[in-house]
Design goal:
With 557 residues, this protein is of the alpha/beta class. It is built from 18 helices and 20 strands. The structure holds ligand C2E and calcium ion (2 copies).
């Protein structure tokens, strides 16, 4: 086709597309516009729609990109129209610097096309279509903009109070994608959302935030159906072969209270996001209703993290030492460093701040700070020729993502000139394969460097025999819950005995934590566990008290 022929052909297509009744053929509009842009070396065509001239001045309108080659360009032709309803429409054509400028004839032709776009844009019907287009994402799901408009509409109509807003994320969706491929995964997602919308009927809709994150907005009448869907729906998949897959979701729910003053979308998005985050962090319950308490906790986290940085700088984080004792001789043969936070005259226990610090990387700062403090204390004792014992330092699982962890630990110990044999690193079990690999590597490296390692809290959480079989630990620290109690004496002490025997079999030292009573100590003796740590001997002691202890390192037997 000659250029002229192309022009007339695509112009005709374009006119056809925008005048087709009853429904404009958008696909055809786009393909015609694309060809016309290419023909005239236009790299981008943009239409803007403003509710009035003031909005135009503020650039507060809807932007609709008709074509975009992706190249950077400058505006070369602009058409503007103020409609009878005072709305303003502009259409702009862009060309790149390199593109040959329009000839006179081309300019006329481009102007004509822009004029046609303008005319149709200014018509209400097209505006509605644009609105519709900006309300759905490329996969056909209602989008965030749609949701926000809905908030607005419901608020204005006084219908928002009593409604439920739900932020949900599909569980294990990457697995579904992996199993059925991306197209299969998308089909499952569409089917699930469709199922949910059917369940909601006239009472609500589902909007996609992006990826596999959605918001549902519905009247409470349909909550039971919605909850059913969230808890799990069986979806049929065809590829590669017919199969059923159960899709469920983790969700945060906010019931808009009576008399709720809606101002911005954040008024609803914030509570549902908060509740969703709580649900995500919560291993037990996948569906959580928002409570103001969550916000208070969030504030608490921010406050603690902030105060923690000040405490680090001010030296308000103290190292306490809890002795580890040889049961037979009553001799102190080691200690565990435990952190305390001095706040004014009060000593704050780790349980009040460690779980918060563990949510971020702050815990890593604390652990290295503690290691450094322990090394400084050991150095002082060595210089003063005091008796010293090996000290354990707790290291959080959070460190496992740090590839330079081993080097960093050794650097701190060597910088302080501390013999490696005086440091033990306590680590807890891990849950993921990636962490397991990192843990195994770290423990092996420490082992080679002559730094001892302990499995902390063995017997609770995710203990696995694999963990102690495959990694060259030195010490197994039995959690206090593993100590036989009055209630479970029989089975409890059998368990205890076997775990101790197992540790010894694979050449690990065994330390029983939380030994409080003479009875418990007797259990240790009976079952061959030679080292104890617990209130029976001492609590974690401030440094001066611990130094005194080291001067008389034997407890009465
Ligand atoms: P953990 O590592 O299991 O430390 C032992 C905890 O048990 C300590 O609590 C200790 O005071 C307590 N304990 C010792 N003997 C007894 C006993 O006979 N009976 C009872 N009921 N409890 C006993 P603490 O000092 O409150 O520390 C709690 C946890 O905080 C620690 O548990 C550890 O997980 C964490 N933690 C403390 N300091 C640090 C640190 O510097 N870094 C890291 N990552 N975690 C730390
Ligand atoms: Ca510990
Ligand atoms: Ca422990």
């Amino acid at each position: 086709m000659t250029t002229d022929q192309s022009y007339y052909y695509w112009l005709e297509q374009f006119v056809h597309a925008i005048t087709r009744l009853p429904e404009i053929d958008l696909k055809q509009v786009f393909s015609a516009l694309t060809e016309l842009c290419k023909l005239f070396r236009v790299c981008k065509g943009v239409t803007c729609f403003y509710d009035n001239e003031q909005k135009e001045a503020e650039k507060d309108g809807e932007v609709f990109v008709c074509y975009d080659s992706g190249e950077a360009g400058a505006p070369v032709l602009v058409k503007r129209l103020v409609t009878a309803a005072n709305t303003v429409v502009t259409v702009t054509a862009y060309q790149t610097k390199e593109a040959a400028p329009f000839t006179d004839q081309e300019r006329e032709r481009v102007e004509l096309i822009l004029q046609m776009i303008l005319t149709f844009m200014s018509q209400d019907r097209l505006k509605k279509i644009i609105k519709r287009m900006t309300c759905y994402d490329s996969d056909g799901f209602r989008n965030l903009q749609y949701l926000f408009r809905e908030f607005d509409r419901l608020a204005k109509a006084g219908l928002l109070s009593g409604m439920a807003a739900i932020h949900f994320n599909l569980k294990h969706f990457s697995l579904i994608n992996h199993q059925f491929g991306r197209p299969g995964g998308s089909a499952v997602m569409r089917a699930y959302v469709r199922r949910m919308e059917q369940a909601l009927g006239e009472n609500g809709s589902v909007y996609r935030l992006g990826g596999d994150n959605f918001v549902a907005l519905c009247r409470q009448a349909s909550m039971p159906q919605l909850l059913d869907c969230l808890r799990g729906e069986s979806i049929a998949v065809d590829c590669p072969e017919p199969k059923e897959v159960t899709v469920s979701a983790v969700a945060g729910i906010f019931i808009v209270p009576q008399g709720f003053q809606y101002r911005t979308p954040g008024d609803i998005m914030n509570p549902i996001t908060t509740a969703y985050q709580v649900a995500k962090a919560n291993r037990g319950e996948d569906i959580i209703y928002y409570s103001e308490q969550f916000d208070l906790e969030k504030e608490k986290v921010i406050r603690i993290k902030h105060a923690f940085q000040n405490a680090l700088a001010a030296g308000d984080l103290l190292t306490y030492y809890q002795p580890k004792v040889q049961v037979d001789s009553g001799e102190i043969i080691g200690a565990e460093a435990l952190c305390r936070w001095r706040q004014g005259g009060r000593i704050v226990m780790p349980m009040e701040f460690i779980p918060v610090l563990e949510q971020g990387i702050e815990i890593c700062e604390l652990d290295f700070y503690m290691l450094d403090r322990v090394c400084q204390d050991l150095k002082r004792w060595l210089e003063r020729k005091l008796r010293v014992v090996p000290v354990s330092v707790n290291f959080s699982r959070r460190h496992m993502i740090d590839p330079g962890l081993f080097e960093h630990i050794v650097e701190v110990i060597d910088r302080n000139g501390i013999p490696h044999a005086l440091i033990d690193i306590e680590l807890t079990e891990t849950t993921t394969d990636v962490e397991f690999t990192a843990l195994k590597r770290l423990v092996s490296q420490l082992h080679q460097a002559g730094i001892s390692t302990s499995v902390d809290d063995f017997g609770v959480g995710y203990s696995s025999l694999n963990l102690i079989k495959e990694i060259p630990w030195n010490v197994l620290k039995l959690d206090r819950t593993l100590l036989p109690s009055q209630a479970n004496r029989g089975r409890g002490s059998q368990m205890f005995r076997h775990v101790v025997a197992l540790a010894h079999e694979i050449d690990m030292l065994c330390v029983a934590e939380g030994v409080e009573t003479p009875d418990q100590l007797a259990t240790l003796r009976e079952n061959g566990c030679h080292i104890a740590q617990g209130f029976y001997y001492d609590k974690a002691l401030p440094i001066e008290a611990f130094e005194q202890r080291l001067k008389q390192p034997y407890y009465r037997k």
